[in-house]
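Hello,

I think I submitted the adenosine-5'-triphosphate job twice by accident. Can you confirm which output corresponds to this input? Input:
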Amino acid sequence: MEKLTQEELAKALNGLPVGEIHCFDAIGSTNDFGFERAAAGAPDMTVITAFEQTKGRGRMQRRWITVPGASVPMTVIIRPTETEMEHLNLFSPLTGLALHEALQEYRNIKSEIKWPNDVLLNRRKIAGILCETQWEGGKLNALILGVGANLYHGSAPEISDITYPASSVEDETGTIIPQTEWIRVFLTQLIRLRPQLGSPAFFERWEKALAYKGETVRLVRPDGSSELSKVTGIAPDGSLITVDGAGERKTWLAGEISLRSKE
Ligand code: ATP
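Support: Only one job matched these inputs. Its output is below.
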């Protein structure tokens, strides 16, 4: 993957309703820069990307590894509308859905979404999402949506704390999606799906893409304790619904649980 220039990115996004466009050779974290720009007043749909990201973050203090030239980091600043404010926790799955539909749209690539939002190809993680909030005087100022996409061979990190099998779009499908097209198709889907946030159509799409539906999985708590339960669907608040071996229905909140395959 070649280093992208700001001009090339701006050209690729021409016609899309985006805010500022920032493209770096190297950056600590695109989300950190997103926080800076949001505090400085950058508009809705401001887009930030980089060739190299040295301090990518995941959920719960985990690291997100960006292999330069193989994995694409991106951040989008969202200024939620009044209606969207009621569904802030759904922006993260919305982003997963936009990635899922971008792959489908681009080359009919069938991905799945590991609840709440990781995108899988052949049960390997090819993208991670980190949705953060910026508050100002008790009021939400912006959502900082971080997306790391493993597009090409070599993206899957060789690290000891890997929590789930990782791969790339190229490794799993043989398809090489040019970086500019990837960013464009993803943003197009994000813009298209945003008005559906929290609607029955949104949950329908999410459930349709849900990995492990009908399968028994291991749900792991932050303290390492875990239990097996069968995935049945998603509740209207975005929780995962499962049924355990004794037939008891359970709901799980994102952030409190990690989903693993049964093994
Ligand atoms: P969980 O799977 O427990 O729900 P998570 O997948 O939501 O956690 P993220 O915040 O999305 O966690 O990503 C951080 C985790 O992803 C890291 O702990 C590491 O295991 C893994 N990881 C880091 N970089 C990559 C990468 N480029 N591709 C795939 N996985 C990665």
